[in-house]
């Protein structure tokens, strides 16, 4: 029996599984689709996500598919400079989401079980039983990373308050049989408004349209080449000719977030926990950070190493971050509305973002570089993660009783770093207190699966 089941092999579920496997647990991912998707909603990784992948040696597997290094992010299309961010990766990495997912999947010990759509979830004091693809699977815990339409969320009746979609847009990857002069040939910062076209590799283009016709059509109406042709002609003129539509989907500006990320033995992450307008490139970054925040906490809980409240700290740390992204993306959505009042607000915001302090604050937020959870001093850029997911102590001796639980390294700058890369001690006499606060009592059993894993913790 695996320690943890993961619903959904999107980037969030895959990275959560990777983190748990790294910590030595057995994980089974249950995925609805029969084969890995080639459809990439996200096309870019924020700097903090790049750091996380690099830290785990996953970036090398992504590199061959990188199409651009974008020295800026954007706030509703207003460029936000990343070049002086305090990170080895001061840029967005232009890479299709499917390649990021494939890179993580290639490093998993246990193959993803595909064609296994979750249809039922039961939990009791000892564990969870999940029906997927007609078979029942049992484990101690379930990570629900089954996306924005999360079945697990529905099955548990988890409160998902927020705002329904008011606008409707279409995303499509397509080829062009006719291309107007002046259309960019390389990656560009997205503009707002209908008719966005971004060249991808292999002669493909990413189109996003959201004109009057898209508002009229229902969310479930199939996207046709004719619809795309009309929208792109409106934006780019009669020379543009849609060739083949490779995939297309409708999306909107619904903004919702789970009230609680933990429901007993079920923990939600990624789009299953929060949805918002995909503007400013935030969703994938949120999901990946959820995964690395949850992974080590759940592993510690299962192993019996976790101090009181550590697992619930996943919700406490990550809920406010996504709540802030919902506010930011709603604000960005308003700035993109083709309306004179919105244009006036946009002009004012553009001026304000020219103030260096404001510009930097937004850069730190959008890039994920500025995140520092309570009790941490931010992330360590010079302390690579331990391969086995243990915390890392640099430049100090480990107090008695902690041997084996924490990886120690030489260094002149004392730091104690959580497995997700956040610094919880930077020198001084309180090392033991920091170890206790974050990594539990030293006497806890080292390699035995604890009572918590069996359901009594
Ligand atoms: C048009 C668009 C553009 C975007 N651009 C960006 C961007 O540039 N940058 C960015 O950061 N974010 C972007 N996003 C958001 C980003 O794509 C998502 O936040 C990201 O996909 C979330 O990953 P996830 O793993 O949580 O969910 P998903 O990627 O949705 O993965 C969920 C997985 O669960 C599976 N699943 C679903 N139901 C079940 C079930 N019942 N049982 C088992 N498996 C199931 C699905 O098949 C899927 O594999 C964009 C989104 C859209 C729509």
TrEMBL record:
Keywords of this entry: FAD, Flavoprotein
Pfam families named among the record's database cross-references: FAD_binding_3, Rng_hyd_C
Transmembrane listed as a keyword: no
Keyword Cell division: no
FAD-binding domain boundaries: 3-326
Molecular function terms from GO: FAD binding; oxidoreductase activity, acting on paired donors, with incorporation or reduction of molecular oxygen, NAD(P)H as one donor, and incorporation of one atom of oxygen
PANTHER family, per database record: BINDING MONOOXYGENASE, PUTATIVE (JCVI)-RELATED (PTHR43004:SF19), TRK SYSTEM POTASSIUM UPTAKE PROTEIN (PTHR43004)
Protein name per its UniProtKB record: FAD-dependent oxidoreductase
UniProt source species: Actinoallomurus iriomotensis
């Amino acid at each position: 029996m695996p320690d943890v089941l993961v619903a959904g092999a999107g980037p969030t579920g895959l990275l959560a599984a990777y983190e748990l496997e790294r910590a030595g647990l057995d994980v089974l991912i249950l995925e609805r689709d029969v084969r890995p998707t080639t459809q990439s909603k996200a096309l870019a990784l924020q700097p903090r996500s790049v750091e996380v992948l690099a830290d785990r040696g996953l970036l090398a597997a992504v590199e061959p598919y990188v199409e651009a290094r974008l020295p800026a992010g954007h706030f509703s299309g207003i460029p936000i400079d990343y070049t002086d961010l305090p990170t080895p990766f001061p840029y967005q990495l232009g890479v299709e989401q499917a390649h990021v997912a494939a890179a993580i999947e290639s490093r998993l010990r246990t193959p993803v079980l595909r064609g296994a759509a979750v249809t039922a979830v039961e939990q009791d004091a000892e564990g969870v039983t999940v029906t997927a693809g007609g078979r029942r699977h049992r484990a101690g815990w379930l990570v629900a990373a089954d996306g924005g339409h999360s079945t697990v969320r529905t099955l548990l009746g988890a409160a998902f308050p927020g705002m329904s979609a008011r606008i409707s847009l279409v995303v499509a990857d397509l080829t062009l049989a006719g291309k107007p002069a002046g259309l960019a040939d390389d990656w560009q910062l997205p503009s707002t408004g209908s008719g966005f076209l971004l060249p991808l590799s292999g002669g493909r283009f990413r189109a996003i349209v959201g004109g009057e016709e898209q508002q009229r059509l229902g969310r479930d109406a199939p996207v046709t080449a004719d619809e795309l042709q009309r929208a792109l002609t409106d934006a780019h003129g009669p020379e543009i000719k849609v060739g083949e539509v490779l995939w297309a989907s409708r999306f909107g500006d619904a903004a919702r977030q789970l009230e609680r990320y933990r429901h007993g033995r079920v923990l939600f992450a990624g789009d299953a926990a929060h949805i918002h307008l995909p503007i400013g490139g935030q969703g994938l970054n949120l999901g990946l950070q959820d995964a690395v925040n949850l992974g080590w906490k759940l592993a510690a809980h299962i192993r019996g190493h976790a101090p009181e409240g550590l697992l619930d700290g996943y919700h406490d740390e990550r809920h406010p971050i996504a709540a802030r992204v919902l506010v930011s993306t709603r604000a960005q959505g308003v700035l993109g509305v083709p309306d004179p009042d919105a244009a006036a607000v946009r002009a004012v915001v553009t001026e304000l973002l020219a103030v260096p302090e404001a510009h930097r604050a937004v850069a730190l937020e959008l890039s994920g570089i500025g995140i520092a959870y309570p009790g941490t001093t931010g992330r360590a850029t010079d302390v690579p993660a331990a391969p086995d997911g243990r915390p890392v102590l640099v430049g100090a001796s480990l107090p008695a009783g902690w041997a084996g639980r924490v990886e120690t390294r030489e260094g002149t700058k004392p730091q104690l770093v959580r497995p997700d890369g956040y610094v919880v001690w930077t020198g001084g006499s309180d090392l033991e207190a920091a170890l206790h606060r974050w990594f539990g009592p030293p006497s806890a059993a080292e390699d035995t699966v604890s009572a918590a894993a069996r359901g009594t913790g």
